[in-house]
């Protein structure tokens, strides 16, 4: 008889457990709010990883590739013919606070602008305030970290050449050279 009592008791316990599962009173597993938090954390970790990979691995490789393309084109031209220095207009010292530095970091630059035309040199002298403003506006849009990248000088010289040429009426400049670039 004691064996039958144990069997009956086990059968009742199994029935009680199955009834509780069907009623939903005692379910095993994680609560739904905890599942939502875990999913949210997983999304944050994945997106943070994607951002980090993009910023520190993909973008620097992209910019260095672009710089190599530009430098490769220039070296091909240099091999074909030696460059002769044209007429030079100097942009004296420009000091600018960098983007996001709250006045604690700054950039000091000087430029030499090359052209073949005396008329362009005269116009550069008269448009010096406009050119300085263009340079200041360009530099203030960049952080110190951006200015320190190897590709910045190539990209900035090309941008400034295009911007300066858009202001000139008497001809175009050939090149923009950094004569000073200090980051503090």
Task: Note the gap between the termini.
Answer: 93 Å
CATH class of the domain at 84-183: Alpha Beta
Radius of gyration: 34 Å
Structural class by SSE content: alpha+beta
Portion of residues in beta strands equals 15-25%
CATH architecture of the domain at 84-183: 2-Layer Sandwich
- Overall mean pLDDT: 80
According to CATH, the homologous superfamily of the domain at 84-183 is Band 7 domain
Largest sheet: 3 strands, antiparallel
**Annotation field: number of helices:** 6
Q: What is the chain-wise order of helices and strands?
A: HHEEHHHHE
What is the strand arrangement across the widest sheet?
Answer: 1-2-3
CATH fold-level assignment of the domain at 84-183: Tetrahydropterin Synthase, Chain A
Helical residue percent?
A: 55-70%
Uncertain segments: none
Q: Which word captures the global form?
A: elongated
Counting DSSP E segments of at least 2 residues, the number of strands comes to 3
Care to describe what's here?
With 184 residues, the protein is α+β, with helices and mostly antiparallel strands. It has a domain at 84-183: Band 7 domain (Tetrahydropterin Synthase, Chain A, 2-Layer Sandwich), CATH 3.30.479. Helix content is 62%, strand content 16%. It has six helices and three strands; from the N terminus they run ααββααααβ. The protein has helices at residues 2-23, 32-80, 118-126, 128-140, 144-147, 150-167; strands spanning 87-97, 106-115, 175-183. Strands 1-2-3 form a three-stranded antiparallel β-sheet, with helices on one face. β1 and β2 form a beta hairpin. α2 (32-80) packs across α6 and α4 runs antiparallel to α6. The longest helix has 49 residues, at 32-80. It is elongated and about 115 Å long. The protein starts with a helix and ends with a strand. 9% of the residues are buried.
């Amino acid at each position: 008889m004691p064996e039958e009592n144990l069997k009956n008791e086990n059968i009742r316990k199994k029935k009680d457990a199955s009834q509780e599962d069907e009623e939903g009173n005692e379910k095993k597993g994680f609560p739904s709010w905890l599942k939502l938090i875990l999913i949210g954390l997983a999304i944050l970790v994945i997106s943070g990883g994607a951002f980090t990979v993009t910023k520190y691995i993909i973008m620097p490789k992209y910019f260095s590739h672009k710089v190599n393309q530009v430098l490769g084109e220039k070296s091909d031209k240099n091999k074909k013919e030696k460059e002769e220095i044209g007429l030079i207009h100097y942009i004296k010292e420009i000091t600018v606070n960098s983007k996001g530095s709250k006045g604690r970091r700054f950039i000091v630059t000087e430029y030499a602008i090359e052209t073949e035309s005396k008329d362009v040199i005269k116009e550069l002298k008269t448009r010096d305030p406009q050119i300085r403003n263009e340079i200041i506006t360009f530099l203030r849009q960049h952080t110190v970290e951006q200015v320190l990248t190897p590709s910045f000088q190539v990209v900035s010289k090309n941008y400034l050449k295009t911007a300066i040429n858009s202001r000139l009426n008497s001809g175009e400049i050939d090149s923009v050279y950094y004569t000073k670039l200090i980051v503090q």
